[in-house]
Design a protein that fits this description.
about 750 residues, Beta Polymerase, domain 2, six-stranded mixed sheet, five-stranded mixed sheet, extended
């Protein structure tokens, strides 16, 4: 860590300590070839020379830190390139060594790893959300490109945490909080459970020293009191397996201090109430033997109901596999047992690093190749659709703490989803196209809404429709980062496309009002290429499409752009068509600044029909360009539109209905009825017989006495259709009055 560099002259004893620690590292490299070991030795010599004269806060030579990081990487059996990068990881940061120097000396792969680590070292996880988000994004993407980068970084952070006591106390809080919030969850997500537990405990120790020491003393006292129980349990378990002639290795396991603290804090327990402090790992020689071993244990002690978990048949997302069962031991003590094979144990402790462990022992083995890669790949998928750092952080932090729910496809494929995930999350997990076109779903054969939350064992079938598109409302309930980013990306893309089309229509109308035929000013026309360059310089846009999108979103006024185009053409001696100008400027709306735009309801999210007045085909309408929000359509007598016109008249454009609208439009009805049995059903039946869709009904919350008002939101084709529906309702018994309701404010 750069802040630990203290340039002083090393003592002979410190130099001897550094040499001794490197000798210990070399002793652990027997899994490498002689050529690779020589490359690692060269990297050490280079790093030792580069850091000469630098000391850590403890007084040790700085080189002891890179050696310790490399030692951790060697325990994971990482390859020679990773070990070289671990030894050199601070050389570029502290010693004025360039990337070119490293490429020339050790090759491009090692230099890339060191460069990635150097960039991570510069990250500052500030309390400010945007800085933290951007830093986090860079780190995760470095990890996704080459997971060795983050493995070396985790080894680096682990050693820094082990030696944090030597640094000024003022740094403890920031570094520990950063480790607990960022690095420990990533270690857990990659399956590095031993590193995860150590980082948590070290962070806890420096964040809350008094609480840590108090709990540590309590645990030592409990360990002394329960020593006899643990010894008795171990002896009885070993005897039971010997009797069953099952060869096993049994290891005691103690709950970490931080996990005890979290359990006490979350469940408001005293230390004495935490009963599962101790557990055992039972390592067996085969997968089937795991289940046999569990049977032996269940015969020995009674299992605790609901505490059996089979992570072998259904592994955790990070690749973890074991059988878990909690038994009631002597004196009523709850003891957890974990049964696993040697291979499972390696993956349980080393996670994604197990790939190198296997590779070291069996170069042809592909075991653990896929560990963590599914999650890492999902980061790249999210990154492709998310340019905003805070949004990326929002997506990813959900996935850092996965409590999996296991569900099935109709073909019985098991899928692990985050707890709280919905049908839409499941659809996107299968494939993006399934998510985009999902319209309905069945869970265990029954029709359910798309927002339904998933539960363990659900069998889910998604119904799709190629014409369907994601609903913006889905963002209110989806839980996974992948689904959220895919939906946002699609909506953003659709909005830009629709805005561009709308902007082109508006600019065409504005140009015609100025006497310019839109076809005359084609972008493909070489004669007007220079004109377009001048227009874009004027508007500040990078392209014609971007300018049209801005017009469609209301960020630019089409009439002003059109006037600028006319002035540029005038400079070139081209004059407007006077006949076209006089014809296009003759409009009924004196208060609007441009000629009309024809709407048929197919314009998409860029054109919004105002909720305050709910215009439908046949209503006189006006269009208001919201600033960056697209076009809002109001009825011309809408009070809100009139207020906006007084304040922002230049943002209004004339709009009109198409002769053949492409869909139905929503409006509101107020029906006053005399109270009686079946009155709501009769009104609904009258609307249905007029082929009107009811989208919402509001009966109010007050007790009904005599007459009452029913408010309906209905979808109709036009005013003629609405009039027919009103006549139908008016003829219904018990209906006193019916009218179209418009919100006025």
């Amino acid at each position: 860590m750069p802040s630990s560099v203290v340039p002083r002259k090393p003592t002979p004893a410190a130099a001897n300590a550094a040499a001794a620690s490197f000798a210990a590292l070399m002793a652990n490299l027997d899994y490498l070839s002689p050529a690779d070991i020589e490359h690692v030795r060269q990297a050490y010599r280079f790093a030792d020379e580069a850091h000469l004269g630098q000391l850590r806060h403890s007084g040790e030579p700085y080189i002891t830190h890179p050696i310790a990081v490399a030692q951790q990487c060697a325990e994971w059996k990482l390859d020679a390139q990773a070990l070289m990068a671990a030894l050199l990881h601070d050389a570029m940061e502290d010693c004025e060594v360039t990337k070119s120097d490293l490429i020339a000396r050790f090759g491009a792969p090692v230099a890339e790893l060191v460069d990635g680590l150097t960039k991570l070292e510069k990250l500052e996880f500030n309390t400010r959300e945007e800085n933290q988000a951007e830093s986090f994004r860079k780190m995760l993407l470095a990890m996704a490109r080459d997971v060795r980068v983050i493995l070396i970084k985790l080894a680096d952070r682990t050693h820094n945490m082990r030696t944090l006591g030597d640094t000024p106390r003022s740094k403890w809080q920031r570094i520990s909080r950063e480790t607990l919030d960022i690095y420990a969850p990533i270690a857990h997500r990659l399956g590095l459970n031993s590193t995860y537990r150590e980082l948590q405990d070290l962070s806890f120790q420096h964040l809350f020293p008094w609480r840590y020491n108090t709990l540590n003393k309590a645990l030592k006292r409990a360990r002394g009191r329960r020593r006899d129980v643990i010894k008795r349990v171990q002896a009885e378990v070993e005897a039971a397996f010997a009797s069953a002639k099952i060869p096993v290795q049994i290891y005691g396991r103690e709950k970490s201090l931080y996990s005890i603290y979290r359990k006490m804090d979350d469940k408001h327990l005293s230390f004495a109430q935490v009963t599962d402090l101790y557990g055992f790992r039972v390592i067996v020689d085969g997968l089937t033997t795991c289940y046999t071993a569990m049977g032996v244990l269940h015969q020995l002690y009674k299992p605790l109901p609901g505490k059996f978990k089979d992570y072998i048949a259904i592994p955790k997302v990070n690749g973890y596999q074991s059988l878990h069962t909690t038994l009631v031991g002597p004196f009523g003590t709850n003891i957890e047992f974990q049964m696993r094979t040697d291979a499972m144990h390696v993956v349980a402790e080393a996670g994604v690093a197990a790939h190198w462990l296997y590779k070291a022992s069996d170069p042809d083995s592909d075991v653990s190749q896929r560990l963590g890669t599914k999650w890492l790949q999902s980061l790249l998928d999210i990154q492709q659709e998310t340019r905003d750092a805070a949004e990326f952080w929002d997506h990813v932090k959900i996935d850092l703490f996965p409590e999996a729910v296991y569900v099935f496809t109709p073909k019985s494929q098991i899928m692990a989803m985050s707890r709280g995930a919905t049908i839409v999350d499941f659809a996107y997990a299968i494939h993006s196209d399934v998510g985009y076109h999902a319209v309905a779903a069945k869970v265990n054969g029954e029709q359910v809404p798309l927002r339904t939350e998933l539960h363990n064992g659900d069998v889910i079938e998604i119904v799709t429709d190629k014409s369907s598109r994601p609903n913006p409302g889905w963002l209110g309930f989806v839980r996974t980062g992948k689904a959220r980013s895919k939906i946002r990306h699609h909506l953003r893309t659709m909005e830009l496309t629709e805005s561009q089309d709308l902007g082109e229509k508006m600019l065409t109308q504005a140009l015609r009002a100025e006497g310019i035929d839109r076809e005359y000013l084609s972008e493909d026309d070489e004669a007007h290429h220079a004109t377009w360059e001048k227009i874009l310089r004027f508007s500040g846009n990078r392209s014609r499409d971007e300018l049209l999108t801005d017009i469609g979103l209301g960020k630019r006024i089409a009439s002003m752009v059109a006037k600028r185009i006319v002035s540029i053409l005038a400079e070139n001696g081209e004059k407007p068509n006077a006949v076209l100008m006089s014809r296009e400027r003759y409009v009924a709306h004196e208060s609007v600044s441009q000629s009309g735009l024809v709407l048929d309801g197919s314009e998409g999210a860029t054109v919004q029909f105002a909720r305050c007045c709910c215009p439908i085909p046949g209503d006189p309408i006006v269009g208001y360009l919201g600033r960056g929000e697209g076009l809002f359509v109001h009825t011309d007598d809408c009070p809100i539109a009139k207020r906006l016109q007084q304040r922002d008249s230049e943002r209004f454009i004339a709009v009109d209905w198409s002769d053949e609208p492409s869909r139905t439009f929503e409006t509101n009805l107020l029906v006053t009825v005399s109270n009686g049995k079946g009155v709501l059903a009769r009104v609904a039946s009258a609307l249905a017989s007029a082929e009107v869709d009811i989208t919402h009904v509001d009966m109010g919350h007050e007790p009904v006495v005599g007459a009452t008002d029913l408010r309906f939101s209905v979808a109709v084709r036009d005013r003629v259709h609405l009039a027919a529906a009103l006549r139908n309702v008016k003829r219904t018994p018990s209906v006193l009055r019916v009218q179209r309701a418009k919100t006025s404010s």
